[in-house]
Design brief:
Elements: H1 3-24, H2 40-43, H3 51-62, H4 69-82, H5 86-90, E1 97-98, E2 103-106, E3 115-118, H6 121-133, H7 151-164, H8 174-186, H9 191-198, H10 204-211
Antiparallel strand pairs: 1-2, 2-3
Helix pairs in contact: 3-4, 4-6, 4-8, 9-10
Length: 223
Amino acid sequence: MSFHGTVKGSHTMKNKNKKVKSQTRPALLNGTVPPRRRLNKDARPREYLTPKEVERLITAAKARGRRYNLRDATMILVAFRHGLRVVELCSLTWDQIDFSQGMMHVRRMKNGIPSVQQIGGEELRALRALKREDNAGRFVFMTERGAPMTPAGFRKFLARLAVAAKFPFSVHPHMLRHATGYKLANDGRDTRALQHYLGHKNIMHTVRYTELSPERFKNFWED
C-alpha cells in the first residue's frame, strides 16, 4: 500500500471514530447534558390509584370552577368505572351509551374483548348532564374547539390536576385503568369475569391484579 493510501485510510478511521463518539455522546441542551429520564418505578411508588385517590381527583376536577369541570370529572369517573384506556375514553361516542337501559357498549383497543357494562347512578346522572350541556355532538368528551378530547390533552390535564390536588407522585391515565383492576380484585371478583370486564385477551394480564389482592391471604392467621 502506498503512503497516500495509508494516510487516507488513517483519516477514514479517525472520521469513523469521531462519528461513533458523536453518536454516543448525549446531545447538549443549553450547553449542559440533559438529565436522564426517570424510570416509572422511581417517579411513582406504584402504577395504580386507590378508590379514595380517584375520588380525590374527581373532587379536585369539580372544584376547578371552570366551564369544563363537569366534563373533566366525568372523564375520570368513566375511565375508572369501566377500566378504559385513554384512547378508549377519548373515542367514546354517545351511541355507545344506552340511557334507557343504563348500559355502555365498551369497545376495546389492542384487539381487546368488547363488552356491555352497567352504568352506575352517579355516572348516569353525570353523563345526562354532560349531554345536555354539550349539545350532544358525536363524541362524549369534547374540547372548547368542538373537537374530541385527545389522549395527549387528557394526559396533560390529569398530570396538572394531580399537582393541584397535591399528590406526592405523578399521575397518568393508565393508572385509572389499573385502579379498576385492583379495586375489583380486592372486592373478590372472579378472575375470569375481571378478564372480560377489562377486555384482556390473555388472562395473564389480569392475574397481576389478583396477585396483589389481600383476599388471597384471607384467614391465614385464623384458627
